[in-house]
Amino acid sequence: MKSFKHKFKRRLMLISTFIFAVIGLFACSIAIDYGMNTLESIGVIGSGVSYCMMAAIGNIGRVSDRETAGAQISSRIWLIELGQIDDSVQFPRPNANGEVGTIPLKNGEYMHYFETVDDSLEDKSTGSKGEITTAVTNSFTFIMGGYRRQLQRFMEEHAGDRFIIIYQMASDAQYYIIGNDLKPMLLKAFDRTNNKESRSVSFTFENNSFLQPQKYVGAIVKESPAAIAANATNLAITSANQYQTGANTAATTIATISGLAAADEGRIIEIVGGGGANPTHIDSIAAIVLKGDVTWIANAGSRLTLKVLDSETLVEVSRVQTA
User: Which class would CATH give 65-216?
Assistant: First the structure.
């Protein structure tokens, strides 16, 4: 009798192990296919998924002193007030690599930068477990020097307003973005000083979100998009970061590019769809490499972000494709 019970328990354990293994493999396949955002939605599969979730993160090794050194944020940051954003266009979401495309702005709106006091920037996130959940606070602080009317107006007109923040890392020139349309950074506090010690203003922005700073791979929008002439089959690159397709009178496909130089390597440019009855098509060609060789169509609201690989080649970073 005891031998029968022992065999039964053993078979039951083997069956249970097999079931959990199948669930774990299924969850892993989802994690690999869809990235970290989807992992959050499949946590209900069971405790066996926790191993897979960590597998998607992978091993985290040591880094060099160069990467742990402080004061690596560039002194120039861009503040985009929530009212500047075109809410008729979907706000870009991070892809599986944590990259965010160009922020869509309303017509006539641009990104304005603040040049801060050197080494005054602090990007910080804290989290603590409570009785029910974990409370996360992201804060971004910097100091602006001088006793200037521009700073006074910013304090008077934007106290409590909500912003998206873009900043650059000095070590690798990579841009990062904090906040999004649903969880922007709130101008939480400012501290103006005008005395014998300092003439300056300290600004503090905060939000409560598990989402950490993401890589910003979009364009820094400083001016209106340069116009691409109607029916043009050549994409002429200038100093502009954005280009808008024209109202074509016939089917039009970009066949060539021009204007690139070796100094442009690493630049990000964006093409904005102008729509119309014959929207411009962009296919993969020798000079333009698109993900999966999928054609992009310049319908109204569509956007194609490209990176300059070299003096002859543009590579797709991200896209918004509207119907």
Answer: mainly beta
